[in-house]
Write the structure tokens for this entry.
Amino acid sequence: MEANGPQGGPCRGNVVVSWTGGKDGCYACYRAMAEGYRVTHLVHFRNPDRPGSHELNPAVVRAQSGAIGIPLVQRDAASYEQAFGEVVRELRAGGERVDGAVFGHIQTHLPLVDRICRDLDLEPVLPIWQQDSERVIAGIVDAGFEVVIVSVRDGMLGAEWLGRTIDGEFPARLAALGGSVDPCGENGEFHTLVTNGPIFRKRIAVTKSESAAGDGYHFLDILEFALVDR
């Protein structure tokens, strides 16, 4: 699959993708492309006033953009909603056509998405909305994405889960803990980094990281990484 648009068939519109670097947004991007949307930009925000310890190193997110081959708009922003609007308006003012926005939400934040898209006259594209979490994980694994756990909420999962790759057995391993952890981490139980997949041209190899804790999370502080051939 081409990283910047659908293969064959009519284009359903140009879209930007709300991007965190994790599995849900990446899989939603992949699904939107498969459905005929042309992804023009990935959009990533970080709140400088609330820098959660579980957030990815912004340089790693930039590396994802390079590995995939889709431009990234990356901003520090106190208000996600305001910043999203500013980015779309700036892209349009620069001559970009933006017809819609892709979000990787499964069960939460629909009112926010609806409000953003209504105010900006965007088509909301939510390819995995209200899908079963185990089905989403299966789709991610079957598509060939490589997903690494980079943070876990203290009291929900232990630090030993850091760095583990999500595979087809992942939901069963979580269920063995008592069923309190959603397979997609919908309640903030864990966060992920996508390092490779069908929309990637290069793979991200994490070469140096440290385990740390803070803000109620255990997390991998990614210090060094490289783009390598797949």
Q: What stands out?
A: The first strand starts at residue 13 and ends at 18. The chain has one domain: 13-229. Residues 13-229 form a domain with the Rossmann fold fold (CATH 3.40.50.620).
